[in-house]
């Protein structure tokens, strides 16, 4: 019964669209460029940065990786950001999160030129999202979730949607997208303080889970026929796995999937979309800079 | 059974608090100043501007009314805003809405110094609201609604709240306040495209109605014991009234009130709070400018 949403396939589709835009830009002499700033040696951050740079190379984008030592100062990072703001070859800038504790991440985000803020975290882009001004950049993960719903044929207009989590990375922007004139869903934002969470979830036609708790959404919380988007990426110990752990989502997939009209697996669901939307935002930035 | 929330009394309380802050500022040689820009001759706008200026005078605030003709250009309005931005005597600026059609209201709002944007409509303040940065200005009407709930002893944490309407003046900021770490409510935003609206409303412990339709919320849509905040200000014809109309809210008050644990009347509920929060924001702006 259940329809598994293939995030890899949708991401490929998004990237193919980007490829056409990149081709057009190249014909105008423009190569979209993404700069990724990595402060410190966090192993997971290194993996993320590596895959972003690799994806740029695959697609013929210009990319630049700037690595700063773990003891870099706020001023060091701001200097790099300012240089990248002024660099015509760079259309998108992201500073990999989380930076070391001496760095004030909010201040760094505010220093990025909003027109190059392809993560969509600058206050100017946050405001544009709330104001439904499509000239801004939407954060990659919720943008990817919206695209997955669309590609899976899930109608958001008039649907009851429940967003689990209220972060500015996923929960709140997701809610704003779903309740916008384009989404037209009736949106409930639920979180750690929500009472009767199972009841709240059970009324949803669409559930977006972004609370970072492995297997939190169980079968009894999901209405028959609901669409479920699982944003969670949680490590759980698994001795049978080569690395000693495996990655699971916020949804108890095996139990929930049979009840759903559509569901994203983890991995292979939302994950591949995030990087595809980052590329898409970078191409959008390059187009806007050369319009 | 029902507890009528006296918006006038709560507004007086807010203004009394402002009075103490104003006294402290005066002792430092600062008089908080509000500038109100009125473009054109709209009668309702004239009434609103008049009452804002009068309230400032009552409280010993400095106020300035700038009237521009109905055929003022965008450049005329921007010039006034720029002068007010640079004026040390002015801590708060608002341009009365709606301006005549030749004026791009969004561009005017963006031109106001965010530190003087006491209406809370500048994108920088919109973003601060979403990001839960309390240094920004919250739009006056939703800020007033939150204060009314607090004064009425309505617990928002863990409550199911339904906001009817998704405008950036009331609905969305109200939802953001209710779902913030301070509000902690489980918030649903319902609107014109919501199906089964009555069912959605019936699950609410708190209803905030801001859809601009007289008497839209009927008794069957309200759970026994719910708190109801009525933001609506609608004119309906009434031959028995001196002016030929009367003002009613979005809630069918007479039928709904007996079911509620708390409810705001119209007039005398949210209305008086809006101007009180405007004064409060102006005093906050003056304090921040002199910190």
Give the topology, please.
The structure is a homodimer of 291-residue chains.
Chain A: H1 7-27, E1 33-39, H2 43-58, E2 62-68, H3 74-86, E3 92-95, H4 105-111, H5 123-130, H6 140-151, E4 160-164, H7 171-179, E5 186-190, H8 197-202, E6 206-209, E7 227-230, E8 234-237, E9 245-248, H9 253-256, E10 262-263, H10 270-289
Parallel strand pairs in A: 1-2, 1-3, 4-5, 4-6, 6-7, 7-10
Antiparallel strand pairs in A: 8-9
Largest sheet of chain A: 5 strands, parallel
Protein chains sharing the most extensive interface: A-B, 27 and 27 residues
C-alpha end-to-end distance of chain A: 46 Å
Overall shape of chain A: it is globular
Average pLDDT of chain A works out at: 97
Radius of gyration of chain A: 19 Å
Number of helices of chain A: 10
The helix-and-strand class of chain A reads alpha/beta
Helix content of chain A: 25-40%
**Stretches with pLDDT under 50, minimum 5 residues of chain A:** none
Assembly state here? homodimer
Element order of chain A: H for helix, E for strand? HEHEHEHHHEHEHEEEEHEH
The counted number of beta strands of chain A is 10
Q: Give the amount of beta strand of chain A, in percent.
A: 15-25%
The strand line-up of the biggest sheet of chain A is 5-4-6-7-10
């Amino acid at each position: 019964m259940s329809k598994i949403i293939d995030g890899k396939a949708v991401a490929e589709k998004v990237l193919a669209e980007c490829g056409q835009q990149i081709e057009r830009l190249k014909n105008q002499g423009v190569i979209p460029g993404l700069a990724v700033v990595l402060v410190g040696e966090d192993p997971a951050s290194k993996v993320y940065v590596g895959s972003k740079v690799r994806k740029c190379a695959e697609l013929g984008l210009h990319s630049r990786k700037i690595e700063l030592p773990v003891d870099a100062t706020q001023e060091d990072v701001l200097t790099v950001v300012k240089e990248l703001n002024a660099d015509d070859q760079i259309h998108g800038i992201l500073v990999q999160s989380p930076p070391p504790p001496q760095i004030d991440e909010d201040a760094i985000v505010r220093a990025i030129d909003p027109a190059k803020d392809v993560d969509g975290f600058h206050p100017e882009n946050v405001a544009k999202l709330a104001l439904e001004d499509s000239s801004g950049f939407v954060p990659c993960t919720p943008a990817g979730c919206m695209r997955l719903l669309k590609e899976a044929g899930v109608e958001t207009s008039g649907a009851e949607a429940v967003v689990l989590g209220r972060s500015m990375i996923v929960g709140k922007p997701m809610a704003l997208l779903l309740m916008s004139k384009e989404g037209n869903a009736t949106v409930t934002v639920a979180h750690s303080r929500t009472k009767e969470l199972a009841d709240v979830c059970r009324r949803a036609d669409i559930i977006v889970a972004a609370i970072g708790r492995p297997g939190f959404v169980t079968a009894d919380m999901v209405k028959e026929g609901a669409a479920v988007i699982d944003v969670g990426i949680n490590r759980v110990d698994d001795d049978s796995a080569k690395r000693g752990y495996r990655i699971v989502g916020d949804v108890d997939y095996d139990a929930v999937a049979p009840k759903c009209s559509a569901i994203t697996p983890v991995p292979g669901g939302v994950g591949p979309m995030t990087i595809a939307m980052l590329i898409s935002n970078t191409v959008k930035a390059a187009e806007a800079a050369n319009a």
